[in-house]
Write a structure and sequence with these properties.
single chain, alpha/beta, 3 domains, 4-stranded antiparallel beta sheet, about 15% strand, globular, binds adenosine monophosphate, binds zinc ion
Length: about 475
């Protein structure tokens, strides 16, 4: 498996530390609003990475945080707390906001066939671990107290600039507009580990600690949640490219200072989804969420298909025209598969199966080349072989692609059973001359767009789309 590693800026062969189980940490959402479709692009790519590794035979232990405290408007500890801002606007408590948008996020994941990570941990549930880490960082001289807060001293780590690949001067230029100077800091890139005294609005959620009553900084959350759930040696850490600096840079600094050794081997970053006006962001207020697409009649799985057609390391520009094209192409694909499904025939051809599985694997192993993975699906459909062999491969690939390629059938199986039971009930009612009940059953089905017809051969049904 070849994977681009942001840490080394190279495509590398992926070698997990424990060949039986890959550990994978993915930064989760800050739950102050609905995830926008750009955030969801990142989660789709991470889902493909996890499922692709499963396809190669690895077990994956994946953990994701839910940020419900500590993430300020600017990633460099500046601005108001994102959760507080929404709570005030929506006149609710921070925890109510967190619950609402966490549930909405999990629903979005489900609609996009993104597997729920094995471990999901809320930032507010890990206070003890932050305190433990910060205490050690203070003891070992990596952190300092200033103005009532605890800061990490970035000059104490030798490789602070490795992940971003930029030096101090470059970064200073890049973040200049974001820097709202905090005079408590010794160096401009130092970051808050624990705040008891913020110049911004006071927090609703605070905890007692040896450093005073306060709340954690955003960066320490991910390090603590990752280390306590996945151990001291992490294989893969993912996130969107905006996380490279400062978030992941700071995660490395504090985790490695705390552990005293290298922490994570592979850093995988997903490029942005833009719209025509540029970067999509929740705070800009012009972002699209999945709900708005569904309201306009789009199938969420088509959005997944749209994302998979491009490589995760390339910027993808979103437009409704693009999504319309993806809808047409997806529907055509599903129709082709339906034709195959309607004519199941032939014995499985193991040679053909192996050939296509190898192509599919190779595409994934080539730094998660999802568009090539989709091409291998089309190659199966075009292949000169029997339909059972094709169906076998389509089902096999869909374990990773998760595009509901055969799902229609599964739904109709259940639905079919339900309708047949209803028809049977109606026939019994008719035999008993209970026409009122028979009509009631027919109307009930009609409400669900199921039309039943009495023919000489018996009762048939049709589902209106
Ligand atoms: P947030 O909820 O803002 O913490 O972001 C959640 C995840 O989405 C992070 O991994 C971000 O890096 C990622 N992300 C943010 N904006 C975009 C975007 N426009 N396109 C793709 N991923 C993004
Ligand atoms: Zn994170």
């Amino acid at each position: 498996m070849k994977l681009y590693n942001t840490l080394t800026k190279q495509i590398e062969t992926f070698i997990p530390q424990n060949e039986n189980e890959v550990t994978m940490y993915t930064c989760g959402p800050t739950v102050y609003y609905y995830a926008h479709i750009g955030n969801l692009r990142t989660y789709i790519s991470e889902d493909i990475l996890e499922k692709g590794l499963n396809y190669l035979g690895y077990k994956v232990k994946r953990c994701m945080n839910i940020t419900d405290v500590g993430h300020l408007a600017g990633d460099s500890d500046t601005g108001e707390d994102k959760m507080m801002t929404t709570a005030k606007k929506e006149k609710k408590s921070v925890l109510e906001i967190a619950k609402h948008y966490t549930n909405a996020f999990l629903e979005d994941m489900e609609k996009l066939n993104i597997r729920k990570p094995q471990i999901i941990s809320k930032a507010t549930d890990n206070i003890d671990m932050y305190i433990k880490m910060i205490t050690k960082l203070l003891e070992d001289g990596y952190a300092y107290k200033s103005g009532g807060n605890i800061y990490f001293d970035t000059t104490k780590t030798p490789n602070y600039y490795q992940l971003s690949g930029r030096n101090y001067e470059d970064l200073m230029l890049a973040v200049r507009s974001d820097v709202d100077v905090d005079t408590n800091k010794k160096n401009p890139f130092d970051f808050g580990l624990w705040f008891t005294n913020s110049k911004f609005n006071d927090q609703e959620l605070k905890w007692d600690s040896p450093f005073g009553i306060g709340y954690p900084g955003w960066h320490i959350e991910c390090s603590a949640i990752a280390i306590s759930n996945l151990g001291e040696n992490l294989d893969i850490h993912c996130g969107g490219i905006d996380n490279i600096f400062p978030h992941h840079t700071n995660e490395i600094a504090q985790s490695e200072s705390y552990l005293g050794h290298k922490w994570c081997n592979y850093w995988v970053h997903m490029e942005f989804l833009n719209d025509k006006s540029g970067k999509m962001s929740k705070s800009k207020g012009d972002s699209k969420d999945l709900r708005s697409l569904i309201e306009k009649g789009y199938n969420p799985i088509v959005y997944r298909y749209f994302c998979l057609q491009s490589h995760y390391r390339k910027t993808l520009t979103f437009s409704t025209e693009g999504l319309d094209i993806a809808t047409k192409s997806y529907n055509k694909l599903i129709n082709k598969i339906k034709n195959i499904k309607n004519n199941p025939e032939g014995d499985l051809d193991q040679k053909i199966i192996e050939k296509h599985q190898n192509n599919f694997k190779k595409a994934f192993e080539n730094d998660i080349n999802t568009s090539l993975m989709i091409t291998s699906l089309y190659d199966v459909i075009k292949e000169d072989t029997n339909n059972n062999t094709k169906l076998y491969l389509i089902k096999d690939f869909d374990q990773v692609l998760s595009l509901n390629l055969l799902k229609d059938d599964e739904i109709s199986q259940e639905l079919k059973k339900y309708i047949e039971e209803k028809i049977n009930e109606r026939n019994i009612a008719k035999q008993n001359k209970d026409y009122a009940k028979a009509d009631q059953i027919r109307d009930e089905l009609l409400k669900q767009n199921i039309i039943i017809k009495d023919t000489r051969e018996g009762t048939t049904f049709e589902i209106q789309k």
